[in-house]
Amino acid sequence: MVTLGFTYFILLMNPFLAINMAMSVDGKVATPNRTVTSFGSPRDLAHLYELRATADAIVCGSRTVEETSATLGNGGDAYLKMRQKAGLASYPVRVVVSGAGTLASNIPLWKAHPSPVVVLTSSRIPSIQCERLRSLAESVWVSPSEEIDFSAAFSWLAASYRVQRIMVEGGPTLNDALFRADLVDELHLTICPRLVGGWSSPTIVDGIGQSHLAYASNLRLTRRRSCRGEIFLVYARHPKATADALPRHPSRFPDPPHGLAAVR
Ligand SMILES: NC(=O)c1ccc[n+]([C@@H]2O[C@H](COP(=O)([O-])OP(=O)(O)OC[C@H]3O[C@@H](n4cnc5c(N)ncnc54)[C@H](OP(=O)(O)O)[C@@H]3O)[C@@H](O)[C@H]2O)c1
């Protein structure tokens, strides 16, 4: 009885959510023409896989999945062992956000079959696109609203796929929606020693943004480390006074093996 009650409580909690992004010194995450989509070193790529190895689900926006040809796998044997040690499934659930259902059919994501692909979409999706995505994905969750209700979507992921920890890997449009919904618990940011420039180069958060400082997301730097010119930072969320979200699963994201120094 006590176990049942505890399980129900755990399912009621919203998953812990972290975003991981790598940016140039001038805050860009891709070149203006979007042909170069990461400026990180092999160390930064390892960092991404280490973080993936702590998550039940990876979430990306549809442009990121298309433009980077991402398959959202587990990163190979070394990271599989980390997942097993942490008691996680061998592969993360792969989640793509596509509000209008424009996610392409001919991308590598659909050809790799390590774990379920789930699409989160909105009531704006035309039925023909919804049917197409249902034929490709294991499940399609349709928000009752034109704007995706991510809190409801993540509660559904928690209940349907036992997702307690989510790693979001962009892009900037999706990041913006998650920050505006006050759902981001941690931001993992790598600053890469390059300058890219360009009015149209995406930054870590684009989209609609906030029009007033009072609504801006407040972050607290909790960990940092530099390694061969790259700076690895972790910011924690400062809850907004108005937040009435469900309680979150506590952070169980361990420090990556190379260690991030705590900031006092
Ligand atoms: N350096 C890095 O760390 C890093 C990481 C990730 C991405 N990137 C780069 O960022 C660029 C892509 O960023 P992006 O901002 O253009 O794309 P994105 O956020 O990956 O995807 C945008 C698309 O995802 C869907 N979407 C996102 N948020 C939504 C919301 N709140 N409601 C409904 N649908 C939503 C929409 O799909 P529909 O059109 O189907 O509605 C939207 O068009 C690429 O160049 C990529 O390489 C860099």
- The number of helices is 8
The N- to C-terminal Cα distance equals: 42 Å
Second rung of CATH, namely the architecture: 3-Layer(aba) Sandwich
User: Percentage of helical residues?
Assistant: 25-40%
Q: Summarize the biggest pleated sheet.
A: 10 strands, mixed
**What name goes with the CATH superfamily?**
Dihydrofolate Reductase, subunit A
Shape: globular
Low-pLDDT stretches: none
Query: What structural class do helix, strand and pairing data support?
Result: alpha/beta
What ligand species are in this complex? Answer: NADP nicotinamide-adenine-dinucleotide phosphate
**Beta-strand residue fraction:** 15-25%
Biggest β-sheet: strands ordered side by side in the sheet: 5-4-3-2-6-1-7-9-8-10
CATH first level: which class?
Alpha Beta
SSE arrangement:
Elements: H1 2-12, E1 16-24, H2 42-52, E2 57-61, H3 62-68, H4 77-85, E3 93-97, H5 108-111, E4 117-121, H6 127-136, E5 139-142, H7 150-161, E6 165-168, H8 172-180, E7 186-192, E8 219-227, E9 230-237, E10 261-262
Bound molecules: NADP nicotinamide-adenine-dinucleotide phosphate.
NADP nicotinamide-adenine-dinucleotide phosphate is lined by residues 21-22, 29-30, 34, 37-38, 60-64, 67-68, 97-103, 122, 148, 169-174, 177, 202, 206.
Q: What are its keywords?
A:
10-stranded mixed β-sheet, 22% strand, alpha/beta, single chain, Dihydrofolate Reductase, subunit A
How would you sum up this structure, described in words?
There is one protein chain. The protein has a single domain, classed as Dihydrofolate Reductase, subunit A (3-Layer(aba) Sandwich), CATH 3.40.430. Helices cover 28% and strands 22% of the residues. It has eight helices and ten strands. Strands 5-4-3-2-6-1-7-9-8-10 form a ten-stranded mixed sheet, with helices on both faces. It binds NADP nicotinamide-adenine-dinucleotide phosphate (NAP). NADP nicotinamide-adenine-dinucleotide phosphate binds next to strand 1, strand 2, helix 3 and helix 8.
